[in-house]
Design a protein that fits this description.
By secondary structure, this protein is an alpha/beta fold. The chain is 48% helix and 13% strand. Bound molecules: flavin-adenine dinucleotide (FAD). Flavin-adenine dinucleotide binds next to β4, β5, α13 and β7.
């Protein structure tokens, strides 16, 4: 709620409306519902947000975390204008923590001292889920400007993987980046993306396609494959992709990428992450009534999957340039152990996170002629585009399963934090998380309605085939049926809502007498 408020406030132009919004959002809210669930990632996230916002207020030293009380006291004591300023300041503060610069020029200046220490950068021009074509065009232009600015500021040309790069979200570059729209999204996106990637190639910068929601994966892979075949990009080793180990498809996806690298006769840089959309993947699965979740439900499963994927990436040195993105000390150490003498890969961390871990590893992860090296993923942008990114960082920092969160908690047992996830998973029964019911079983006492995963091509094609068959096979007539007997009634035509010229059947309405008969 805090983040929703912050987002809304950023978009409301005048102070009076902002104050009314604050009153509406904060006064008389049912905060009680959230109490007693302080393990919930969101409450933890907002705790973290408040703690960071200059220690205006901290979680109580003892006793329960009481957001309602805090907000009520704040509104009463300070009034809406002060809260308005405070929320804006908190978001700015968080922004400064996680964003390298408001413009690419500022970010390039900020990155210089770290570059001198040996870090590399991948710049992410903030923005995602474009809603209109003009949004998408604006994001594209920002990326093109960024490529030009980076090229100017780092004219030296060591090897490609030592150069800076850019990271792009395909949802920022097309307003309807979804599978149902693939017949238009792919041809519309490809020319502009090819141009951007071609410019990155000319500047000797890498381009990584960020991983987003699982329901976009198939389309993302279509784009990625098609991009590698475009004439200006053929044989280019700089076109990379992020893979999320929390997805059940992660390992087969790596096999597919290895095969693609061979087919396209190039190296593919693969950034391995665990995945930043876990909460929304679970929620979406429940909303849609899917047969099961696309992601693992136990944290250790994701960790174990990460290790399996890491081994698979390291096992294909002629096809894959592995990029291990993590802030988890166990995961990083495991990768170090797997890699041994092989240093043809890199680590990645986010700007504003994992500094201590990477400092500690020092030489091992700092580039040298033989060393692996570390790249910092650096978001660039202003407050308006920050929020979605910020929410993911707050969830990551706030979730009590997360390594960085546990590290900050003096009471979390170290032995548990560094336990081998494979052994823990082997010992876990059942393998799926018993606290996260399948989507069909989330309601006590009744089954959830089952839905269709329209972004799953197998499922969608079965549905479309069934629709075609039904439409083509017979004339449908719907009549009132009482005691198993259809009653003849005057009928009206029913038209296909997607094509009003097409008649798909007829209905005869029940009369009052029919209703009475049915009830009687
Ligand atoms: P850990 O604390 O070990 O792992 C936390 C992760 O475990 C969660 O994020 C989630 O993925 C998983 N998890 C938590 N609870 C459960 C559960 N109950 N069941 C199953 N799994 C669970 N993310 C993207 O999605 N796309 C990207 O393109 C992307 N790019 C990134 C680039 C860089 C350089 C970095 C460092 C991160 C990037 N991320 C991206 C974010 C990344 O997914 C998170 O930072 C990462 O998940 C945190 O993992 P960890 O090993 O640092 O921490």
């Amino acid at each position: 709620m805090l983040m929703c408020l912050a987002e809304a406030l950023l978009r409301v132009p005048d102070a009076e409306t902002q104050d009314r919004l604050i009153r509406d959002k904060l006064a008389g809210r049912d905060w009680e519902r959230h109490l007693g669930h302080s393990s919930s990632a969101f409450v933890n996230a907002s705790t973290y947000a408040l703690m960071l916002s200059g220690h205006v207020i901290g979680p109580q030293d003892t006793g329960r975390w009481d957001p309602e009380g805090i907000w009520r006291r704040l509104v009463v004591r300070l009034g809406e204008p002060v809260i308005r300023q405070a929320v804006a300041a908190a978001v700015r503060l968080l922004g400064r923590h996680f964003v390298l610069g408001r413009t690419i020029e500022e970010a390039l200046r900020e990155s210089r001292p770290l570059e001198r220490e040996g870090y590399r950068f991948s710049y992410d021009m903030l923005g995602e889920a474009a809603v209109t074509r003009s949004d998408a065009k604006r994001y594209l232009e920002r990326y093109r400007d960024a490529v030009r600015a980076i090229m100017k500021s780092s004219p030296r040309a060591p090897s490609l993987f030592e150069r800076p790069g850019i990271s792009v979200k395909l949802t920022a570059l097309h307003p309807r980046f979804e599978d149902a729209k693939r017949h238009t999204a792919l041809p519309e996106l490809l020319p502009s993306l090819t141009r951007l990637a071609g410019e990155a190639r000319a500047a000797n910068l890498t381009l990584t396609v960020d991983a987003e929601e699982s329901e976009r994966l198939d389309l993302m892979l279509d784009v990625f494959e098609a991009l590698g075949e475009e004439e200006p990009l053929q044989g280019w080793d700089g076109l990379g992709i992020a893979v999320q180990s929390y997805q059940k498809r992660a390992l087969p996806l790596i096999a597919w990428l290895v095969d693609l690298a061979h087919r396209q006769n190039r190296m593919i840089p693969v950034r391995l992450v665990k995945g930043a959309y876990w909460d929304s993947e679970i929620k979406r699965g429940q909303e849609q009534g899917l047969a099961d979740y696309p992601v693992f439900t136990r944290k250790v499963s994701t960790d174990a999957s990460y290790l399996a994927c890491a081994r698979a990436l390291l096992a294909s040195p002629h096809a894959i340039y592995p990029q291990f993105a993590t802030h988890n000390a166990h995961t990083l150490s495991a990768v170090e152990a797997f890699a041994g003498k092989n240093r043809r890969f890199e680590y990645q961390r986010l700007h504003g996170m994992g500094e201590a871990l990477y400092e500690l590893y020092g030489e091992a992860v700092r580039p040298s002629r033989v060393g692996a090296g570390t790249r910092i993923y650096a978001p660039v942008g202003s407050h308006e585009d920050l929020l979605a990114y910020l929410v993911r960082r707050l969830l990551e920092n706030g979730a009590n399963t997360s390594f960085v969160n546990r590290l900050a908690n003096d009471e979390a047992p170290v032995d548990e934090m560094i336990a081998d996830p494979v052994a823990r998973l082997a010992a876990a029964e059942p393998k799926r998380n018993p606290r996260i019911a399948k989507p069909e079983a989330i309601f006590p006492g009744r089954r959830n309605s089952s839905g269709l995963a329209l972004n799953d091509r197998n499922e969608a094609s079965r549905l479309i085939a069934a629709m075609r068959w039904t439409l083509g096979s017979q004339e449908h007539v719907a009549l009132p049926i009482i005691d198993g007997e259809a009653r003849e009634r005057p009928v009206t035509s029913v038209l296909d809502p997607s094509d009003r010229r097409r008649k798909i059947g007829e209905t005869g309405e029940a009369t009052d007498d029919d209703v009475a008969d049915a009830l009687g």
